Amino acid sequence: MVFFKKISLLIGVYFLSFIFIREIITTHRQWVPNRLFVNHNQYNHTLSPNFPPDVIHEDDHDIARDYKINSLGLRENDEIILPKPEKEFRILVVGDSFVMGNLKLTDKLETNLNKMFGNDQIIFNVINYGTASYSAMLHLARLKHQLLGLDPDAIIYFPDLTDVYDDTHRYLWLAEYDEDGKLDRVKASTRILRAKRRHKRQINHFLKKIGLATQKIRNVRGPKVHEHKYFQIFDHAKENINKLSKYTKQELNFTLGFIKDYVEITKSNQIHLSISMYPHLPQIIPENKVYGTDMMGSLYNRVFEKRVLNLSEKENIFFKSFYEPISQSVLSGKRHYLPDDMHFNDYGYDFLADLVTEWVVKNPQKSIGFAPQKEDFRD
Questions:
Q1: Do 13 and 155 reside in the same domain of the chain?
Q2: Residue 156 and residue 43 in one domain
Q3: Which of 14, 35, 197, 308 has minimal CB crowding within 10 Å?
Q4: Cα(12)–Cα(108) distance, rounded to whole angstroms?
């Protein structure tokens, strides 16, 4: 009996040691932002202010060559002047990595606006306000804690198809709300917090299997062998538009709530807002052809875009979809996206920059709230 107890104790010690060591390794290997990004306790993360530093880390030389970040954590060569100069018409282009990675968009838009409408009385300044892995929730938190202080005249806001996943499955657990139930901040995510979250998910998964808990949000998981790296991110976009699951409806409503709050705050602060969207490639050609999987090919739906359009129309916000021109160009044989990646290539970024610039210059009052005089229009 004593021998059996000793053996049981020894097995227990070995088992707990294995679990403990495994946890240390797993937690340590979790994603840690490179020096281009830093945690932020009001809007989760931001580009690292004043990057690159005077002394560049050996792993950062390539990034330092491509990225220049100002003191506010924006991908801008220049600092934002505060208070805003009297003659400046300030436009912020807000989005995630699709905006952050497209400097030509802000450069072309600023150049053409000043060429068409700039004069001794007005100078247009278009600022890149894009940050990778941002979603509607983080955009709203940053609007409250930083953006309003920059005194913009107009915002061009690009929601992204990934927002629907990110809000519910990446940032929901980090969000904090005020007494009125409105978003206050989105805490930074540390390795310890992610480890705790992973444990909670594992426990909840076990409780659901034995019937002691119910599934409240979609069960997301890493891709299987035959699936691509983004598989779970677009679960909501794979569903039949006439048979949306309760999880997709829940995720859509959650994200749209933040966009609605964004609209209300910009209105109350007299900031002109327009909303624009671009397609992801599997919305144009089947997913299996985009990512080279052996799964049945189908197009991602455009439900999120249509819901954003409906919200914009209800709130009297100018909405512009770039689906048709990008789709037509892709189907004609042009390559606008990186292989095995969701993002545009350089040609795609150029194409989007031209589309946005043409749209704004032709519709300045609706897109940025600027009403030019007849004599302002130039050849």
A1: no
A2: yes
A3: 14
A4: 65
Predicted confidence (pLDDT) per residue in 228-250, tens digit? 677 789 999 999 999 999 999 99
Show the domain range for 62.
Answer: 37-188+237-376
CA distance 244 to 254: 15
Which tokens hold the place of 282? 């599997």
Residues 276, 321 contacting (CB under 8 angstroms) = yes
The conformational region for residue 292 under phi > 0 = left, psi -120 to 50 = alpha, else beta, is: left
Round to whole Å and give the CA distance between 257 and 321.
20
pLDDT confidence of residue 28: 44
Question: In what helix (H) or strand (E) does residue 245 lie, and over which residues does it extend?
Answer: none
Of 221 and 345, the structure prediction assigns the larger pLDDT to 345
Predicted confidence band at 154 (pLDDT cuts at 50, 70, 90)? very high
Measured distance CA(302)–CA(234) in Å, rounded: 11
Q: Percent of the chain scored above 90 by pLDDT?
A: 70
Same domain assignment for residues 7 and 153: no
Given a cut of 80, is residue 175 above it in pLDDT?
yes
Tell me whether residue 228 is in a domain: no
Establish if 209 belongs to a structural domain: no
Per-residue pLDDT tens digits for 249-275: 999 999 999 999 999 999 999 999 999
Total domain count for the chain? 2
Tell me which residue has tokens 């249509």: 306
Q: Give phi and psi for 271, each to the nearest 5.
A: -105, 125
**164 shares its domain with 23:** no
Residues 25 and 41 in one domain: no
Same domain, yes or no: 361 and 273: yes
DSSP code per residue over 255-287: HHHHHHHHHHHHHHTT-EEEEEE---GGGTS-H
For the entire predicted model, the pTM comes to 0.87
Per-residue tokens: 198: 């992973």
pLDDT surpasses 60 at 33:
no
Q: What secondary structure does DSSP assign to 150-173, as a single string?
A: G--SEEEE---TTHHHHIIIIIGG
Instruction: List strand residue ranges (DSSP E) for 51-111, in order.
Output: 88-95
**95 near 133, Cβ under 8 Å?**
no
Beta-carbon contacts of residue 366 (< 8 Å; ≥ 6 apart): 274, 318
